[in-house]
Design brief:
By secondary structure, the chain is an alpha/beta fold. It is built from 15 helices and 24 strands. It starts with a strand and ends with a helix. The structure holds uridine-diphosphate-N-acetylglucosamine (UD1).
Length: about 425
């Protein structure tokens, strides 16, 4: 029994430091396999997904040396197999990045079918289409994706959907391929740019990351690098939303304000004050919040990974809000849990209609996936009374020290592991 026990109802106030971006760090670690030289990665978040990925790397012969909580040294000169399996790795989506990295370097990779949060079908057809265009063969066997090539040759690839995973995977597969690869209709997320910057720091020749077209001129080999992962846009956005939903005043530090513009704009629209500085953003929610419309879109649009956090906030905003999820088809399951706290929500396909209520009430709720889990924690912090949030393993996949950071802002949240601890938390006995 691992749960968060939460007493809600007080505004979050203060400053919080944001860690490295999970969705940049995962592919950057995989990309570090592309060189035999040593690579040093800094600002890694200390979260479950990263630790599972590092363990998988060790299992194929990669030397992983933790220099500190957020710093790791990697040497992949002595990889002895290009097959990656195991329960942990099958549960995470980012395992697919081993396909691009190992195929790119060794022309061979087999990886257990990717899992991750159950928020939709999450196809990987665009990754496969790209690998094939570069000259690889791809097949599925006993739950493994197996890809092999004699040689990889640059190609012109049009992605049918804008996919973060496919864009990054194809960059990794193409950096050592012969000649020029052009990938059109690519994702422009900050983490796509960060992975391209990392690969370039190792000697790759990638141009256009952050635009719709990426051009990769293959190079013979990559060399070692020291690299710092960008701050996590979604962790930052989650704390910005924590300020809004609890009517608080939070300064989110160590961020890149540009990456948060779409979130800041929505917060201003619903009645928050948002002040940017060089590497921080302050959100003050001193007025009544009012409802709005949100549609999730690829970057620079409103991120699907912030949809649950803004929805729980809009559930307390005056009037009607309409939230349209256009990236994943199964990303409203947490709204049933929010209903237990008193939210007034109707779901019609990929649209959620929220009629703002005055308050949420404490309840026993379950995280349904990573971001939804974080959003439900925010709802519980805003709610009147006591809540428990179950299935927190989802949240721990992607948030480092989540309870500690929230408590640093004046929240009352405790990780409990047995009935006695739960009782003490409910009675507010330390
Ligand atoms: C990544 C992020 C996830 C985020 C998502 C969108 C990681 C580990 N995960 O997931 O947190 O929510 O980006 O910002 O970085 N699609 C296809 N075919 C493909 C690939 C994708 O149809 O081959 C579809 C997906 O089903 C989805 C959409 O494209 O509807 C976007 O998916 P994609 O950007 O690839 O997301 P992920 O890489 O899975």
């Amino acid at each position: 029994m691992e749960q968060y026990a939460i007493w809600g109802g007080n505004p979050l106030v203060g400053e919080v430091e944001i860690g490295g971006a999970k969705n940049a760090a995962l592919p950057i670690l995989a990309a570090s396999l592309l060189t035999d030289d040593t690579v040093l990665i800094d600002n890694l978040p200390d979260i479950r997904d990263i630790n599972v990925l590092l363990a998988a790397m060790k299992s194929i012969g990669v030397v992983v040396e933790r220099l500190g909580r957020h710093q790791v040294k990697i040497n992949a000169a002595h990889i002895y197999t290009t097959a990656i399996e195991g329960e942990g790795i099958r549960k995470m989506r980012a395992s697919y990045y081993f396909l691009g990295a190992l195929l790119g370097k060794y022309k061979s990779a087999s990886v257990g079918l990717p899992g991750g949060c159950e928020i939709g079908t999450r196809a990987i057809d665009q990754h496969i289409k790209g690998f094939k265009a570069l000259g690889a063969k791809v097949r599925l066997e006993h739950g493994m994706i197996i890809t092999e090539a004699i040689d990889l040759t640059g190609a012109h690839i049009f992605l049918d959907v804008v996919s973060v995973g496919a864009t990054i995977n194809l960059m990794m597969a193409a950096v050592l391929a012969e000649g020029l690869t052009v990938i059109e209709n690519v994702a422009k997320e900050p983490h796509v740019v960060d992975v391209a910057n990392f690969l370039n720091s190792m000697g790759a020749n990638i141009k256009g990351a952050g635009t719709d077209v990426i051009r990769i001129r293959g190079v013979k080999s990559l060399h070692g690098s020291e690299y710092t992962v960008i701050p996590d846009q979604i962790e930052a956005g989650t704390f910005m939303m924590a300020a809004a939903i609890t009517k608080g005043d939070v300064t989110v530090k160590n961020i890149i304000p540009k990456h948060l513009e779409c979130i800041s704009a929505k917060l201003k629209e619903i009645g928050c004050e948002v002040q940017d500085s060089d590497d921080a953003v302050r959100v003050v929610a001193s007025r009544v919040l009012h409802g709005t419309q949100v549609k999730t879109m690829p970057y620079p649009g409103f991120p699907t990974d912030m949809q649950p956090q803004i929805s729980v906030t809009l559930g307390l905003a005056e009037g009607t809000s309409i939230v349209r999820e256009s990236i994943f088809e199964n990303r409203f399951r947490y709204l049933e849990e929010l209903g237990k706290m008193g939210a007034n929500v109707t779901i019609e396909g990929n649209v959620a209609i929220l009629e703002g209520v005055k308050k949420y009430e404490g309840a026993s709720i379950s995280a349904t996936d990573l971001r939804a889990g974080a959003a439900l924690v925010l709802a519980a912090l805003a709610a009147e009374g006591f809540s428990t949030v179950d299935h927190i393993h989802y949240i721990e996949r992607g948030y480092e020290d989540f309870p500690e950071k929230l408590n640093g802002l004046g929240g009352h949240i405790k990780r409990v592991t047995n009935a006695e601890e739960l009782k003490r938390a409910r009675l507010k006995v330390v």
